[in-house]
Amino acid sequence: PFSSCSRRKMNLKSERRGIHVDQSELLCKKGCGYYGNPAWQGFCSKCWREEYHKARQKQIQEDWELAERLQREEEEAYASSQSTQGAQSLTFSKFEEKKTNEKTRKVTTVKKFFTASSRAGAKKAEIQEAKGPSPSIHRQASIETDRVSKEFIEFIRTYQKPGQDIYKQCKLFLDTMSHKRDLSIEEQSECAQDFYQNVADRLQTRWKVPPEKVEKAMDEVEKYIMTRQYKYVFCPETTDDEKKDLAVQKRIRALHWVTPQMLCVPVSEEIPEVSDMVVKAITDIIEMDSKRVPRDKLACITKCSKHIFNAIKITKNEPASADDFLPTLIYIVLKGNPPRLQSNIQYITRFCNPSRLMTGEDGYYFTNLCCAVAFIEKLDAQSLNLSQEDFDRFMTGQTSPKKQESDSFSPDVCLGVKQMCKSLDLLSQLNERQERIVSEAKKLEKDLIDWTDGITKEVEDIVEKYPLEIKPKSQALAAIDSENVENDKLPPPLQPQVYAG
C-alpha cells in the first residue's frame, strides 16, 4: 500500500493540474482498506498475491485434469489394441511386474510434470520438451521395443532352464547399464563385450548348449539388449561421431564428379541387370542407418556386397575377385552417400557380437567397408591418376570430367539423356574456351604493362644520358633588299650593268 506521504504528494500533483482526486478511487479493489497500486491492477500487494495464487492453483488443477484425461485415453487405446491383436500372457512374473512398474512410473512422471513449481522450472521443462523427440517417434520406438521383448521371451522358452538364466542375466545387465550412463562410450562397449563373452561361456560350460544353438541365442541376446540400449549408445553426445559423419558427407559430396573409369570399376551400368544390381546395392547401404541392431546393420552391408558381386559377375561374365570388389564398393558409397556412415561403423564396432564381427562373411564385408571409407577420406589426385591441377579444379567445381559421347550410348537410352549429355559436353567446351580466353587476356595485359614499363625506362635513361640544352635565341638577319644602313655586314646591292654589243 501507498504511504501517507506518497498519497499526499499524489493529491498535491493532481490538485495542481486541476484534477479532483477521489480518495475512494485509490483504495484497493477488494475493499480491504489499503490503497491499491495501478501496476497491480488496482489491488494492494496482499490482495494481489492472493489473486495470483488463486489463478495459479486454478491453472494447475486444469492441467492436472487434462493429464489424467490423456492418461485414461491412452490406457483405453492400449487396451483396445491389445484386445484386437490378442494379448499373450508372459511366463515370467518378474517381467509382468516390470511392465506394471514401468506403466506406473509413466503416470507418475506425467502428473509430476503438472505439479506446482517455479516459473524457471516450468520454462526449463518446456525447453526440454521442445528439444526432445516427437511423440510419434517415441511411440514407434516403444512398439518396436515391446515387439522385440515378446519375440525374445518366445525364443528363450525353447531353452527352458538355460533360457531363464539368459533372461535373468539380460535383465541384470540392463539394470546395471541404466546406472552407468555417465561412463564413456568405450567403457560401455567393454561392458557389453564382457557380457557377450560371459553369456556364451555360461551356456557352453554350465548348460552344455551346442555351439550352433549358442550362436543363435547370442544373436537374440544382442537383438534384445541393443534394441533397448540403442538410443543411449548410438552416436552419443560425448563423442565426435556426428562431427565425423558431417565431414564424410561433405567429402563425398565434393567427390560427386568421380566416374567408374577413374576408379577402374569393372561394372557397366548400361546393362539393365547390372543397373538394377547397383540400385539395390545403394538401397541396402542406405537402409543400414534405419536398423537398430548391429547384426541387422551387418546384414545390410552383406546384402549390398552380394549385389556388387553379382553386378561384376554379369558385366565380366566370370566370378568377381577381391580386386574388383573394393573399387566397386567405393563407387557405391560415393554414389549412395549413406547417412551417418561413421556413426554406424562405430556402433557396429563397439556393440556387435565379437564372434560375428571377427569371422565369417559379415566380418569380411564390414572390413572392406571400413577400408572404402578410409580410402575416400584420403582420396587424392594420385589415387585417380589425375594431375593435381585437374583434381583441384574438379574439387572446387570449376569444371567436371568430360562425359561420354552420345554415339557411345546404348540404343535403349532415351533421347533426353543423349541431348543432356550433348549439352553438358558443349557447356564443358565453352567453359574451357572461356578459361583459355581469360588466361590469354590476362597474359596480354601483363605483356602490355611490361612493354610500357620497359619503354618508359629506356626514355628515362636516354634523357638522363643526353640532357636537353636550350641555347639563347640568335638575332634575325635583315632582308637583302632592305635599306638597313646599320648592318655593315651586308654586301652592297647589285647594280645593273649594260654591255655593248
From TrEMBL:
Family annotation (PANTHER family): RAB GDP/GTP EXCHANGE FACTOR (PTHR23101), RAB5 GDP_GTP EXCHANGE FACTOR (PTHR23101:SF126)
Residue ranges annotated for the A20-type domain, each copy included: 22-56
One of the GO BP terms on file: endocytosis
InterPro entries assigned to the protein according to its UniProt record, in alphabetical order: DUF5601 (IPR041545), VPS9 (IPR003123), Vps9-like (IPR045046), VPS9_dom_sf (IPR037191), Znf_A20 (IPR002653)
Molecular function (Gene Ontology), one example: zinc ion binding
Keywords: Acetylation, Cytoplasm, Endocytosis, Endosome, Metal-binding, Phosphoprotein, Protein transport, Transport, Ubl conjugation, Ubl conjugation pathway, Zinc, Zinc-finger
Protein name: Rab5 GDP/GTP exchange factor
Organism expressing this protein natively: Falcunculus frontatus (Eastern shriketit)
Highest taxon, organism lineage: Eukaryota
Gene encoding the protein: Rabgef1
Annotated SMART domains: VPS9, ZnF_A20
Annotated region (Disordered), positions in chain: 482-501
Biological classification of the source: Eukaryota, Metazoa, Chordata, Craniata, Vertebrata
